[in-house]
DNA sequence: GTTGCTGCAAAAAGTTTGCAGGACG
DNA sequence: CGTCCTGCAAACTTTTTGCAGCAAC
């Protein structure tokens, strides 16, 4: 039913190669190098299709546009740098999160976002302020 | 500088009285009962102003429109019911969250969202399935 | 009496949809 | 070769902005 097209392959490849989650415009720009006449609509349609197949996941940071990343990296969370506004992966995951909710609630999943300064931005600040 | 207007008062009152975070259209509908000729633009402008004053906070659940709630409830997190799509408060907050990130990262804040079934939806399911 | 705030409408920004032609199987 | 997918443009949705009049201080 679902066809394997150059566009979907290109978009999946772009996300696979990405160092961090990408926004639709970023995906369009990068994938257009592989499929020149690529349009926005196709990007959105491909993202929906890939998401339905559980090949990618959405990363939503409050106040930020939705970003997409491959599902091949497994369960993890994200760190958002308040300075450079980049998204980083956080591999750790606390086990007891479900206990946060009152017992009448049935917890099936969770999402954690950490905010702060990434190593680069922290160093930059330290260097200019300290030495 | 910032003026105290009927519109802002009405919107703040609506959020104060709300049982859960509200979307801009919901806020407009409720506040319009207090200030009849209220428009969307004013709601958005008031929300930005109240947010700047730290009187309210945004609650963003992936795939859901932004919601707003009063800041008077202090630090807490949210539970999103996958069935009825309502948002609930979670008072607990794990202390050691900052340790999740690699040590080079400076964690300043965090956000947790739990997903699952709220008591009502869980009961409904249990009743029809079990007894 | 100033000047910021409001309501309305128009504009932006982001995402979806309709349609004719092209690529996949 | 049929039909799903694509590219383009138009439609939608959500949020922002411009402007004349009004209300807060």
Describe it for me?
The structure is a homodimer. With about 130 residues, the first copy, chain A, is of the alpha+beta class. The first copy, chain A, folds into two domains: about 1-75, Winged helix-like DNA-binding domain superfamily/Winged helix DNA-binding domain (Arc Repressor Mutant, subunit A, Orthogonal Bundle); about 75-130, Ferric-uptake regulator, C-terminal dimerisarion domain (Dna Ligase, domain 1), CATH 3.30.1490.190. Helices cover about 35% and strands about 20% of the residues of chain A. Chain A has helices at about 5-15, 25-30, 40-50, 120-130, and strands spanning about 55-60, 65-70, 75-80, 85-90, 105-115. In chain A, a hairpin with a 5-residue loop joins strand 3 and strand 4 (about 85-90). In chain A, helix 1 (about 5-15) crosses helix 2 and helix 1 packs across helix 3 (about 40-50). The radius of gyration of chain A is 18 Å and the shape is globular. At the A-B interface, strand 5 of A face strand 5 of B. Chain A binds a DNA duplex (25 and 25 nucleotides) through helix 1 and helix 3. Chains A, B: Keywords: DNA-binding, Iron, Metal-binding, Repressor, Transcription, Transcription regulation, Zinc. Chains A, B: InterPro entries: FUR, Fur_C, WH-like_DNA-bd_sf, WH_DNA-bd_sf. Chains A, B: GO terms for molecular function: DNA-binding transcription factor activity; transcription cis-regulatory region binding; zinc ion binding. Chains A, B: One of its GO terms (biological process) is negative regulation of DNA-templated transcription.
């Amino acid at each position: 039913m679902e066809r394997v097209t150059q566009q979907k392959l290109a978009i999946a490849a772009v996300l696979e190669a990405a160092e961090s989650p990408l926004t639709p415009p970023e995906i369009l720009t990068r994938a257009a190098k592989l499929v020149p006449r690529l349009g926005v609509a196709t990007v959105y349609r491909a993202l929906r299709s890939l998401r339905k197949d559980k090949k990618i996941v959405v990363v939503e940071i409050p106040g930020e546009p939705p970003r997409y990343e491959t599902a091949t990296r497994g369960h993890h969370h994200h760190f958002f740098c308040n300075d450079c506004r980049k998204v980083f992966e956080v591999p750790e995951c606390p086990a007891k999160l479900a206990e946060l909710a009152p017992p009448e609630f049935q917890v099936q999943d969770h999402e954690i976002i950490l905010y702060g300064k990434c190593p680069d931005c922290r160093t930059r600040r330290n260097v200019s302020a300290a030495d």
